[in-house]
Amino acid sequence: MGRIAIVSAMHEELAAVLALMPDEHKQMVAGRSFALGHLNGHEVVVVLSRIGKVAAATTATVLMERFGVAQVLFTGVAGGLASDARVGDVVVATEFLQHDMDASPLFPAYEVPLYGRARFGTDPALTAALALAAQSVLQQGVLDAARLQDFGITRPQMHQGLIVSGDRFVSNRRESQQLQQSLPDALAVEMEGAAVAQVCHDYGVPFAAMRTVSDRADDDAHADFLKFVTHVASRYSAAILARFFAARA
Ligand code: ADE
Q1: Which of 10, 50, 74, 77 to mutate to test the pocket of ligand 1 (most atoms within 8 A of CB)?
Q2: Global pTM value
Q3: Structural domain of 89
């Protein structure tokens, strides 16, 4: 089994994951800091994707070309689009699409030119393992009641399905409603996943991704965002990854 990449968009999230790696050492490539080491006995490389599709694609390409990774796991936060994707829920992606890709009338809307497809699926086995870890962490509960109450989280749920990505932080109701209408099966929106999925597709490397819903992609989307990432999403990510790697041992 080769090296596994763990990728996040935000520093606050990776901190919790890096804390699980006893032997971490850093290597700089393309202005990015790649942390090499072991998680539960598995060889891993942990890196920030940075924000947006181009930055994430560059990071993913370096992971392929310089680190020869065998699998890629993405963990982060997303805005909820589906009505039941509530703050505090976890979405495990089965497929990704770029919601801001539109080369029509030359190609159908959303289709990535020359790929003949709009949607890039995640790896079924890796996704099933990540979903199992997410489900068990949510059921067990990693946060105390006071913290959950702080963010208005009652009973966090796990969802599986389409996540859409674009180079926009969606922070108004009009735009999130437009996305829901055009892409009714989209569960959540973020800014990197579809780019990483496309690079993984190009290299034939299995990919899986989970996102904690941090906001409803509406006018309140920015409120408490960093606080949520630090106190909720990063805790979920670290617990879910720890569970994921323990199950593989
Ligand atoms: N990541 C977290 N929330 C988001 C939002 N509302 N739009 C885009 N990316 C996000």
Answers
A1: 77
A2: 0.95
A3: 75-247
218 C-alpha to center of ligand 1: Å? 9
* Non-local CB neighbours of 168 within 8 Å, separated by 6+ positions: 100, 175, 191
69-126 residue pLDDT tens: 999 999 999 999 999 999 999 999 999 999 999 999 999 999 999 999 999 999 999 9
Atom 4 of ligand 1 has which residue's CA nearest to it? 79
For residue 155, give the CATH number of its domain: 3.40.50.1580
Q: What pLDDT, in 10s, does the model give residues 116-174?
A: 999 999 999 999 999 999 999 998 877 777 778 888 888 899 999 999 999 999 999 99
212 in any annotated domain: yes
User: Which residues contact ligand 1 via a Cβ below 6 A?
Assistant: 77-79, 169-171, 189-191, 214-215, 217, 221
Residue 59 counted as domain residue: no
Q: Is residue 113 part of a domain?
A: yes
Q: Quickly count: other Cβ atoms within 10 Å of residue 222's Cβ.
A: 11
Alpha-carbon distance of 38 to 152, in angstroms, equals: 35
Tally of domains in the chain: 1
